Request: fold
Amino acid sequence: MTGPTTFSVALHNETATAQLMADLALLVGPGDVITLTGDLGAGKTAAARAMIRYLAGDEALEVPSPTFTLVQGYELPPFAVVHADLYRVEDESELEEIGLSPLPDAMLVLIEWPERAPSAMPQDRIDIALTHRPALGSNARAADITGHGTATATVARLQALREFLDASGYMEATRKRMAGDASTRSYARLLRDDEIVILMNSPQRPDGAAMYNGKSYSAAVHLAENIKPFVAIDEGLRAQGISAPEIHHCDLDHGFLISEDFGSEGVVEGDPPRPIAERYEAAADLLALLHGRTLPEKVPLADQTYAIPVFDTDALLIEIGLMPEWYLPDRNAPLSDEKRAEFFAMWRELLKKPQASPKTWIIRDYHSPNLIWLAERTGIARVGVIDFQDTVLGPQSYDVVSLLQDARIDVPETLELTLLSRYIKARRTDDAGFDAAGFAELYAIMSAQRNTRLLGTFARLNRRDGKPHYLRHQPRIWTYLQRSLAHPALTPLRDWYLANVPPPQEPLQEPLRA
Reply:
């Protein structure tokens, strides 16, 4: 087992404590344990309070010391947090009575006075030892941060993050939590004087075990496993006149970057959210313009080049394989070996046309959560694109489907058809030989591929990753899937799905978490 890793931080005031705890909050999650040690008045509760308020996005949130309650729970936007104080614990057997034995594994746990129950503390934990430093000021503290067991990597990453912020000139910036996504990345806004930028934490990490011919799922389907593709494609899009965020500072080895903040003005409005037609039109125009160009297959990255992966048939089949692997068992409809073979044989044949069609950059998740409206700009530059690290070379219809059949919000069929016609008209204006009927068929095929995959993806996010709120999107995905299966070219597939794929259940309303 890796030995403990320690580094020290001088905390001149409570602001410095809040900055440290915000940085650590960017790197931890459910199942992690942080112990806080130090004498009375050393600042343990202040440190815990700073982290809880950061995760809540509420600087005024009441976070009392749990000295008398012993345990205080918080349902926060990213995940639940437990804040405990063991000062009044006389015997470790008391931990079971207060719900701390065993420690909850679906929450972040903050424990003051862990030395009152040493054998109950997990081997994998982060300890923050706080001591007074009156020589540095009346409110000054020193924090010795130690990672035990698997948490040594987190502490090493925290040190690297702090060094990156210091080198970039943002150590004194105010941190504001931002909502995350379905990935392992996390984000914060950094406020310095009148400037606001975005900090991205993108750890090197595969998505899943090596189950696909010796590759993880992310490697097999060409999802980014580090920050390098983001940086390369960002510069590539900007070179094409696309509004991607300007990158101010980056650490390619550790996976940190600081970039331009596009704000939070989206392309949808209302509750429930619905598309703003003008903004969706601009987003469709952007795709038409991009797809009409001959784009490079390699783009610069630092002092080298980045080869954009090809979205080949095997990758597309692995994606749609998530549906029988995760969705169908949830619906009590697992496939026999014979039916599974039929499924993949039908898809392999169906994918021949899109694979033979012209290739372009597929941004991949080109939909409302990843599009920011930049009203002060003009034309397609008004569409800010912020999620593109998974870009691949593949069929032009893919991103058109992503936009017009938005996985997160309902796009009415009338608007979908209007925007599809707008895209086709723009392509024909640029190229009189553009095959509108052929593109419509490719659109239907890639819609069926994408929505089949999403049924499985959302089932996996629920069952494997503990994110049940994604299940609420499945009925929408099913609706989109039925639209695409209505195309005559997909009649055999439609019949097969009708016989073998039950519709999703209407999920219970879950609290929305980022």
The chain has 16 helices and 20 strands. The mean pLDDT is 93.
